[in-house]
Design a protein that fits this description.
single chain, 6-stranded mixed sheet, 4-stranded antiparallel sheet, 12 strands, FeS-cluster_ATPase_SufC
Length: 259
């Protein structure tokens, strides 16, 4: 079992404080969801965990199996077992999907255990079938010309091929129709097991109907203010965030109220 711990994490971007003391602990074998209103710091948390240089950690720790990873560059965090499915994946012309994924897979393996092309292609073909992806997707340049749904499926394809310890899924449901949502959820659910954990960032309950979380965290004002089981997400879907904020006595102005 592996453990990911976020302790008293404070993060700023362009001098503006976004995270103001986030605490979270999860183990492999668990699926956690983070919900919260716009502008509360959910995506900032994902970027800070992975080491995006624009996000400055001013206080706190991120521990992977007890080791603080904040001084590690992004590639070393990935090799250690972290994965981020981005909300807006970049288009990279000149390198095919298959080339990129094979490089990422082998980067996490010892040199004497790297996947041969034959074994890699066999696994890639099988995984693409799970995600209802056509064979030609493997030969297209990474995300270039992909629709929003294709990009999200491609992120899950990478996840399933790389097999990280912990995957952070940043609004993987954004822009998906119901059929694509089911396919993406199928891929994540296939990964569930004692050697895999996932932190799912979402606005909507509908994703959590297909990927049922063990723990739901609610973020407001740059902190996690409440956690519970799947029923908490259903409550937020029914009642919104204002009622929970008022119940907790939080002096926080929600973005939607400012519009």
């Amino acid at each position: 079992m592996s453990k990911l711990e976020v302790k008293d994490l404070h993060v700023s971007i362009d001098g503006k404080k976004i995270l103001k003391g986030v605490n979270l602990t999860m183990n492999t074998g668990e699926i956690h969801a983070i919900m919260g209103p716009n502008g509360t710091g959910k995506s900032t948390l994902s970027q800070a965990i992975m080491g995006h240089p624009a996000y400055k950690v001013t206080q706190g720790e991120v521990l992977l199996n007890g080791e603080n990873i904040l001084d590690l560059p992004v590639d070393e965090r990935a090799r250690a077992g972290l994965f981020l499915a981005m909300q807006y994946p970049a288009e990279i012309p000149g390198i095919t999907n298959a080339e990129f994924i094979r490089g990422a897979v082998n980067a996490r393996l010892p040199e004497d255990k790297s996947l041969s092309i034959r074994k890699f292609l066999k696994k890639l073909d099988k995984t693409m079938q799970v995600l209802d992806m056509t064979e030609e997707m493997a030969d297209r340049y990474l995300n270039e010309g992909f629709s929003g749904g294709e990009k999200k499926r491609n992120e899950i394809l990478q996840l399933m091929m790389i097999e990280p310890k912990f995957a952070i899924l940043d609004e993987i449901d954004s822009g998906l129709d119901i059929d694509a949502l089911k396919v993406v959820s199928r891929g994540v659910n296939q990964m569930r097991g004692p050697e895999f954990g996932s932190l799912i960032i979402t606005h909507y309950q509908r994703l959590l109907n297909y990927i049922v979380p063990d723990v739901v965290h609610v973020m407001m004002g740059g902190k996690i203010v409440k956690q519970g089981g799947p029923e908490l997400a259903k409550r937020l879907e029914d009642e919104g965030y204002t009622g929970l904020r008022d119940e907790l006595g939080l002096d926080i102005k929600l973005v939607d109220e400012e519009a």
